[in-house]
Input
Amino acid sequence: MLHSPVLEALGRRITGGALPAGATLTLDGIGAEFGVSRTVAREAMRLLEGLGLVRSGPRVGIVVLPHDAWNVLDPRVIEWRLAGPGRASQLRSLTELRQAVEPLAASCAARGATAAVRDELVATARRMRELGEAGKGDGEEFLALDIQLHELLMRSSGNELFSALADVVAVVISGRTHLGLMPAYPEPEALDAHEAVALAVARGDGAAAEEAMARIVREVRGALGEGPAGKG
Amino acid sequence: MLHSPVLEALGRRITGGALPAGATLTLDGIGAEFGVSRTVAREAMRLLEGLGLVRSGPRVGIVVLPHDAWNVLDPRVIEWRLAGPGRASQLRSLTELRQAVEPLAASCAARGATAAVRDELVATARRMRELGEAGKGDGEEFLALDIQLHELLMRSSGNELFSALADVVAVVISGRTHLGLMPAYPEPEALDAHEAVALAVARGDGAAAEEAMARIVREVRGALGEGPAGKG
DNA sequence: CCTCACCTATTGGTGACACCATTATGCCGT
DNA sequence: ACGGCATAATGGTGTCACCAATAGGTGAGG
Output
């Protein structure tokens, strides 16, 4: 897959703003810069086109599109934007989406999760509490548990669209930690809420699961600041 | 763009189940069937790969992936699946997503919408009521207004991720009507709720907008049946 | 019957070519 | 001098022939 590095580089350049809307590229230019043939450059361009980042036409070259044409829900675009400037703003937008989706997903999971998943959720929440109360709430292990719990919930919601958003949630949680936006040690209320979600799902109480998850996400959003999510 | 018809046809075939997971294709086969060169077939395949529908490797050909690898949030995939069998199930999944997102989007719009948008929302809701009470709630004009109102709300939420979901909401609303899942004439409560959302946004009352939008989506979901959204 | 080596099918990648749409240039007429 | 139309240059679109790499089947041999 020779086109992957080209796709990555151009994707990051565009989403990062280094190639602003209206900028033009040519296949020969891309080929020359990356040392690939026109065919490979064309393939990378097609992928970019599929993501809504560029549009190509005869004589005009490959034109970078304004950001409101981008497939901002595509995991690749999300990852690129989280790695570039404006990641804080992107994180706010994503957190708002989490705020919308996760409570309902938790409610659905309470209805549809398998017995195994219910057990695992409870076990995960318990381990989170143990780690958190042992003062290890800032490590990678705690982060992994946090992600696992949220991902399990999304994937057990019985709604494939929510499942598809599980990756997004994972990257948001991880991004928040690695950007230093987490409290150094998880607050007791957060631990309580995570455990409450797990227990509510385990006993099939959708309303309680939804409420507890809403508490979690509200807290997350509060930590990110109340301002409206920007466009960057 | 010679590859478009190929992409369309194969995309629909895969998402529709005519090409089940594990089925294999070859570039030459695609080229022969559609009368295009291998290059074009390869480009179509790349796009399909970008959508998570297939994976290609030397000697193994192009393998159709199981549906949990699909980019189910991509507008193209959504459209294809809505056009194929299992559209009712797909509509349920999408409606669940609407249920999650639209209330929060309405709340955000109440904070962030421009004065022009607020006016247009109110005017749109008013025209919807007029049409509905005139017995024309089943026509294309009413549908267009309905879509316009929801789209305006999503796009004015100030969150680009919600904006990206506006297309999805539009296609869901339109699909629901054209699949005959709408009541022949809109119920008075629906008209009330739409107007309530518009007025709440107009006066900047986020909580009321959220509550009214939740009423709308709950009603929609009720009409689709309460069963869990399937996978097809 | 199992194992291993080889063979072949099929994708990955390249370069050259013809084609065509679009844009810009420049000419000509008013 | 200005505006409209013809023409040329530019750069994507599509095809072809070719080579490299690889994976999976096949057949021979133990």
Observations:
- The beta strands of chain B are 24-25, 54-57, 61-64.
- Chain B touches chain A at residues 3, 39, 42-43, 46-47, 50-51, 67-68, 71-75, 93-94, 96-97, 99-101, 103-105, 108, 111-112, 158-165, 228-229, 231 (CB under 8 Å).
